């Protein structure tokens, strides 16, 4: 009888959707699997801004601990939440084909505030990256902290005296809660690995590694790997406004990476275009260019401001 693979997941509707997707993929390949919901620290404290908590992997460490304790076999994460350095003994075994990478603005009345330079709109987001990019474009606006799962944040937006809030489009679309009063922010560069789902397991678990191998989407794994190399080289996390996006068109890989100051008054952007077969290493190379252009100064200022 085939071993039942225990899938660890957070308890939110989106996390369960992602975990069920992995379960269905495993089942389609002849494996038995069951979900094991686990509450993360990031789901318990819904008040403190993530950049103030300052803990790498706040949404993943509870699942990591459960894997290392052999309470679950694999864990399903939104890849953008996963630290670039995993705990010893764990590995990312499969990156699922990517969904929508874009950010989305959900507004309450209209979007006139986007063109009115005299109005100080109230915009909500928990992401320091989104705050920095937004303030760079709309320095007169007021930013407010917004924590919680997708449904909780939508409810908070409805209850508060805010004009709009920013979400990852993939999260709202996957569980079919994207409101009609929303627009894609084409100009906003996403977080590294945004829109992708990753499945982790123990390095010594050959059964799960082999079961997950067919689920890996090579193009998504390549592109998100480059984005995360950019993030890792800049030593960034949820406390640093770092953005990156790589995609393949034809046989070419296109990359754009960005580092912002906290208030958006300074921004360093780098781009690359290389044959996809030669793309390995460009994330680290692009990050080094950011540092050489003054990114090291911005990062040090951010650390001092948050220290």
UniProtKB/TrEMBL annotation:
Pathway noted in the entry: Porphyrin-containing compound metabolism; protoporphyrin-IX biosynthesis; coproporphyrinogen-III from 5-aminolevulinate: step 2/4
Keywords carried by this UniProt record: Porphyrin biosynthesis, Transferase
Protein name according to UniProt: Hydroxymethylbilane synthase
Protein species of origin: Chitinophaga barathri
Domain of life: Bacteria
GO CC, one annotated term: cytoplasm
Family: Belongs to the HMBS family.
Record's catalysed reaction(s): 4 porphobilinogen + H2O = hydroxymethylbilane + 4 NH4(+)
GO terms assigned for molecular function: hydroxymethylbilane synthase activity
Swiss-Prot/TrEMBL cofactor(s): dipyrromethane
Family annotation (InterPro entries): HemC (IPR000860), Porphobilin_deaminase_cofac_BS (IPR022419), Porphobilin_deaminase_N (IPR022417), Porphobilinogen_deaminase_C (IPR022418), Porphobilinogen_deaminase_C_sf (IPR036803)
GO annotation, biological process: heme biosynthetic process
Domain Porphobilinogen deaminase C-terminal per the UniProt entry, residue ranges: 222-291
EC number, as in UniProt: 2.5.1.61
Assembly behavior: Monomer.
Domain Porphobilinogen deaminase N-terminal: 5-209
Job description of the protein: Tetrapolymerization of the monopyrrole PBG into the hydroxymethylbilane pre-uroporphyrinogen in several discrete steps.
């Amino acid at each position: 009888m085939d071993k039942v693979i225990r899938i660890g997941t957070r308890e939110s509707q989106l996390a369960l959707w992602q975990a069920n997707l992995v379960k269905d993929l495993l089942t389609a390949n002849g494996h038995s699997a069951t979900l094991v919901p686990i509450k993360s620290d990031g789901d318990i404290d819904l008040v403190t801004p993530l950049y103030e908590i300052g803990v790498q992997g706040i949404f993943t460490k509870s699942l990591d601990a459960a894997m290392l304790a052999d309470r679950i076999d694999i864990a399903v994460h939104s890849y953008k939440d996963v630290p670039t350095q995993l705990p010893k003994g764990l590995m990312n075994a499969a990156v699922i084909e990517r969904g929508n990478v874009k950010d989305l603005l959900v507004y309450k009345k209209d979007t006139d505030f986007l063109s009115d330079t005299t109005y100080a709109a109230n915009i909500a987001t928990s992401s320091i990256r989104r705050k920095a990019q937004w303030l760079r474009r709309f320095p007169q606006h007021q930013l407010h902290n917004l924590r919680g799962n997708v449904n909780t944040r939508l409810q908070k937006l409805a209850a508060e005296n805010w004009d709009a809030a920013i979400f990852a489009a993939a999260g709202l679309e996957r569980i079919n809660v994207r409101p009609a009063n929303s627009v894609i922010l084409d100009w906003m560069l996403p977080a590294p690995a945004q829109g992708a789902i990753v499945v982790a397991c123990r390095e010594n678990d050959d059964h799960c590694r082999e079961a997950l191998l067919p689920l890996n989407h090579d193009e998504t794994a390549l592109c998100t790997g480059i984005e995360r190399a950019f993030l890792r080289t800049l030593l960034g996390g949820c406390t640093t406004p770092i953005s990156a996006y790589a995609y393949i068109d034809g046989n070419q890989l296109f990359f754009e990476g960005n580092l912002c100051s906290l208030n958006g008054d300074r921004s360093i952007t780098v781009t690359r275009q290389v044959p996809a077969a030669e793309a390995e290493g460009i994330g680290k190379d692009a990050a080094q260019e950011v540092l050489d252009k003054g990114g090291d100064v911005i990062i040090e200022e951010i650390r001092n401001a948050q220290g």
